[in-house]
Amino acid sequence: MGKKYILWDFDNTLAYRNGMWGQVIYDLLREFGYKDVTLNDIKQYLNYGFPWHSPNTPHTEFFKGTPWWDHMTLHFENILREIGVKENLSYKVASQIKVRYLDVTQWQLYDDTIPCLENTKNKGYHNIIVSNHVPELTLLVDELGISRFFEGIYSSADIGFEKPNIQAYKKVMSELRDVCEATMIGDSYDADILGAVNAGINAILVRKENSHNYKKYCENLMDIFEFI
């Protein structure tokens, strides 16, 4: 008999960081004396330039051989200059974003994350994380105390493709063994639902408002068992 796999998104599905990238930049700017910059001022610059904003572009083209964080630090530096940060400070601020973003004390698990993961294990499912994320995702999952639930953790930073690119899903599925059933669970209709469905994988939308009226939708994780 084959194995039943659940492919989990991470951000805003299993865990969250309040404010995400915008909050990190906002907090740093205040520490450096830029107290007139608002979160909204920053957010307008966060809708482009990340690899997940260009999912059709493989990382070999997107990063052009530059390490993930080196590329993104340069991107953050450019954002800071656009906001009005002095050139001699922009790199200093940008270079601190990595450490701040990965500070596990700023990350939280949803209340239903561990109960749901325990339930999936008890029901015989094999859990995998598939997330558009930073290279340190495995470390973050471990620091949050949930690595014991997962047989594999795949960050797009390592896969080389972003969801919903079908190559991201093909890469993960090619490494799973004896699959009889696979279900993607995530909060993004485009990346998690359409991406998985296009790859021939069952998908459940969770948490985020169901503006697409997707049939397999759950407000919380404990309700996913209606569909698997």
UniProtKB/TrEMBL annotation:
Pfam (any one): Hydrolase
SUPFAM superfamilies for the chain: HAD-like
Enumerate the InterPro entries for this protein: HAD-like_hydrolase_domain, HAD-like_sf, HAD-SF_hydro_IA, HAD-SF_hydro_IA_REG-2-like_cap, HAD_sf
* Superkingdom of origin: Bacteria
State the protein's name. Haloacid dehalogenase
Species assigned in the record:
Ruminiclostridium papyrosolvens C7
